[in-house]
Each structure stands twice: as structure tokens, then as C-alpha cells.
Design the sequence.
């Protein structure tokens, strides 16, 4: 049998993975990383790795709440430092999922498909971060200038909406390139849920920015903790729904 040729979705996911990696190195060269205490970056790595293990099933694919930590961390501590933390967090989180997968004993640990999925997840989250925030002049993070907190709605609203919108578009493009039956039904069913995942957590991001001058780095810790609880609950409901639909 002839091998199945790569699909458009495969090339798209590969493109996002490559662009994500390229944007990470280019941004690191162009913009100096903001001065951040190492344990803040470690907390971001931890929360991202945790959230990566509790995905939601939307548009016949998986999406997590990692983008919320990515956006909140980027606004607080600058896009470059947070992009590296997100990349390492997703690498560790996906590795943990692979180690504990049901069919782990029947396949190699790190396959080409695993690297592609991980690279796509990284690119999906850091491309909006490294494009939107620097274009809008958000290079250092608001923690470097606490006085800007007073203007949080005017300063942070536009990059937050642009980030969420671009992240959602990149995710939906992957869905549009997959040829599946009942595509319209799936889109109609999950589009509202996708909008909720992308935009509903934004007030939590703004709240973290508001309280950061008073509690410092504990703001990102509190946001990550709340997101962890939300992710566990939403992932459980998503798993139950998927199991019900397969019956």
C-alpha cells in the first residue's frame, strides 16, 4: 500500500510549529527579556504544564486554558520571558501526557506526531503573544511600570482582545483544513464554547493585573490556581460529553 500523503492540516500544523519556534528566537534577539525573578518563570512553567494535561474537546480537536496564562503572564512580565516559560511548560505537560497515555506500551515515547502536536501547541500560544504585544508596544510587561496599572482598561484591553482573537482564528483554521463529515454541525455546536474559552477568562487576566501592585507575583500564582480548578472541571465535563456522543 502507498503511504497516505500528508494532509493540508498536517502542513498547517507544521507551519505553526515552525513559525512559533522562529518567532521565539527572533523575538529573543530583537527584544531583551524583561527582568523577572526565576521562580515567577518556574510558576508559569508549572501552571502551563498542569493545564496541558486537562484539554477540552472543541471543533474535533483539543484546546487548553494555557492561552490565559500566556496572555496574563505576557502582560505582566513581558512576552519573551513568558514565551520561553510557556514553551517549556507545554513540552513538560505533553511529555507527562505521553508517559501516562493508555497505549504508551504499544508505541515509542517521542514520535514524530508527538513533536508535531507539541510544536503546534507551542506555536498556537506564543505566536499571538510575540506578534500582538510587541506590535502594540508591550515589550517589558506592566510589572516593570506599576504606574501603568491605573490605565489597565485602556492599555491592556486592546492587546488582550487582539491576542484572544488571533489565537481563536489560528485554532479555527486548523479545523477548517480538516475534511470531516458534519463540519457545519460541529462548528455550530462548538463555536460559542470556543468564544467562551477565548474571551470569558479575560476579566481574570485584568483582575490579576489590577492586584499585582499589591500582592506582586502572587497575582500570577492566584490566576494559575483558579485556572487549574476551572480546567479540571471543564475537562471533566468535556470528557463526559465526548463519551456520551460516542455511544
Sequence:
Amino acid at each position: 500500500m502507498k503511504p497516505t500523503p500528508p494532509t493540508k492540516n498536517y502542513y498547517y500544523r507544521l507551519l505553526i510549529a515552525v513559525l512559533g519556534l522562529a518567532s521565539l528566537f527572533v523575538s529573543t534577539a530583537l527584544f531583551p527579556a524583561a527582568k523577572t525573578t526565576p521562580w515567577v518563570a518556574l510558576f508559569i512553567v508549572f501552571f502551563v504544564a498542569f493545564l496541558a494535561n486537562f484539554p477540552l474537546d472543541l471543533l474535533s480537536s483539543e484546546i487548553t486554558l494555557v492561552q490565559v496564562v500566556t496572555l496574563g503572564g505576557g502582560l505582566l512580565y513581558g512576552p519573551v520571558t513568558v514565551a520561553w516559560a510557556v514553551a517549556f511548560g507545554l513540552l513538560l505537560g505533553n511529555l507527562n501526557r505521553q508517559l501516562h497515555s493508555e497505549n504508551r506500551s504499544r508505541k515509542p515515547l517521542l514520535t514524530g506526531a508527538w513533536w508535531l502536536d507539541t510544536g503546534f501547541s507551542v506555536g498556537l500560544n506564543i505566536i499571538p503573544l510575540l506578534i500582538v504585544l510587541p506590535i502594540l508596544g508591550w515589550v517589558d510587561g506592566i510589572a516593570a511600570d506599576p504606574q501603568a496599572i491605573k490605565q489597565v482598561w485602556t492599555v491592556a484591553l486592546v492587546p488582550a482582545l487582539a491576542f484572544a482573537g488571533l489565537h481563536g482564528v489560528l485554532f479555527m483554521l486548523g479545523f477548517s483544513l480538516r475534511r470531516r463529515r458534519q463540519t457545519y454541525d460541529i462548528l455550530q455546536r462548538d463555536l460559542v464554547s470556543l468564544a467562551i474559552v477565548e474571551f470569558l477568562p479575560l476579566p481574570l487576566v485584568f483582575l490579576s493585573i489590577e492586584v499585582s501592585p499589591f500582592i506582586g507575583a502572587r497575582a500570577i500564582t492566584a490566576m494559575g490556581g483558579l485556572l487549574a480548578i476551572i480546567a479540571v472541571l471543564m475537562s471533566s465535563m468535556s470528557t463526559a460529553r465526548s463519551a456520551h456522543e460516542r455511544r
User: Anything to note?
Assistant: DSSP finds nine helices and two strands in the chain.
